[in-house]
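Ex. 9. Protein: Sulfatase-modifying factor enzyme-like domain-containing protein.
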Amino acid sequence: MKAAINTDLFVTVPETTLPCGIVVPAFMVGKYATSQSDDGKAIIVADRKPWTNINYHNANAACIEAGYQMITETQWLAIAHNVANVDANWTKGKVGEGKLFRGIREGNVSSAQAGDFEPTDKKERRWLTLSNGEQICDLNGNVFSWVFDDLHGDEKGVINKSFDTTDPSISTAPYPTLEKGMGWRPNYETSWSGVALVRGGYWLSGDRAGVFRLSSGWPVDDYGGVGFRCTKSL
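Predicted structure tokens for Sulfatase-modifying factor enzyme-like domain-containing protein:
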């Protein structure tokens, strides 16, 4: 019997040095938010809606069952830092000019949309371009993603300490919260112990959405606006 063909779609993220000096090795990340197959497995395709209403722990387990890992905080920061330094991702065509593209966020839809959906509002730009020319969908809106916290988290990736004054989760963004398309992020010294990180924003986030958007959710709860994203090693 032939093995099933894996059609999951990934893009390569180049090795990235964050402003704080952390080097994030190159890796592969789902081109789209993870969807659910007919048999309940994690898949990465363009024509299915993101898998939402799944709690952090179950989302992490679904990534592992599929042979992948959940995206980590340093990996998300690597992508955000990379795309923020690409001219094509800014509304005025040059890094720092205008705003960093943000995706589905203005309430024009009532649920998370599949990767092949095209927003009617041209200001909702779902796609971000990496420095290697590859493109990734929905890190800046449509649906939040659970994130495994490898900076402040315990062995399960759940936060167990505060953000300090030099924290890369806060300091990597090149502009203040809610400015230039950064989305919202908390203040230094915020304590979210016991919760799990979510990033990006969802279809009702408005100006709070963005690739640097940082929020949280209870890891045992599921939310209609929160999905997850898989990664794998090169």
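Check your answer against this statement. The first helix runs from residue 56 to 65.
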